[in-house]
Give the backbone structure.
Amino acid sequence: MDSRPPRPWMYVASISAVLAMAVAMLAQGRFHRQHTAEAARPLRLVPATEQAPGEPTVEISAEITPQIDHQHGHRHVHSNAIPQHAVGRFPNRGNPNSIRAQRYDLELPLDPQEADHVTPLIPRRGRPIHVFGIAVNGVAFEPGAGEFWQGHPRSGWTYEPLGGAVPLGLDENHAHVQPTGKYHYHGLPTGLIERLENAPDKHSALVGWAADGFPIYAQFGYTDPTDPKSEIVELRTSYRLKAGDRPGGREPSGPHDGAFVQDYEYVAGHGDLDECNGRRGVTPEFPEGTYAYFLTSDWPVIPRAFRGEPAVRR
């Protein structure tokens, strides 16, 4: 048996191996920070005063395959996920990552169909499994986060990025950066909405496409979803904060204040939209009618469930 003490280079090699493993786990979303915060906090958004590195590239096209009864096909999205609008400074105190160009090559259904069931973006326990959609500027909508009560993905309590309990370094576009360098939206894409000249006196511009192929609009739509001549209003979500307190014990305590995704509940008829934050009706791009999602000023802001079958996973 060799009783000689380990040589210094062996310690260095061991430490390097551990660090490499930690970095790999972080990049793959397998490493979870441990949090015990229970109260929502006002967001402290990083000013969007920087230009993202690289030249923005986005191309969205449709490929139609004639069928007997439908025009089937795919909507192709090619993007490097670099936005045209200004972004916050990254890395920052709440987010250690730098923006880097990506390579998106997505195919979304051109003729999406409403399913007979709703598909949640975030499972009851665990990490988000789907990207909600892609904006017209090629940046992804990913409202969920991999931050959990006491660091346990299966705790049943997922921190809400817009709740402020866990600072995530969001900029004024309610976006930040993943370890892979992917810039993505967790809330209203303010810079994009401004570029599209969204205003409360007209129907929202098309802001993107969901992973199931249905269109995404911002806050404003027709009072009567079937009448394009009806008054324009800001559409209201049907989600609200639950009454009372969380269970406590091994679970978080305190009032349902929006720190966690599970602080909210859907109440049919409470607002204008369904549990997927969408509705069926006419829009400027679809005068014959379509199912469409809407971003809202109040939670969930970006929808957290699909009416159709999502074609894109994380």
Q: What stands out?
A: Residues 8-27 form the longest helix (20 residues). Residues 1-31 form one domain. The helical segments are 8-27, 190-195. Residues 112 and 213 are 5 Å apart (CA to CA).
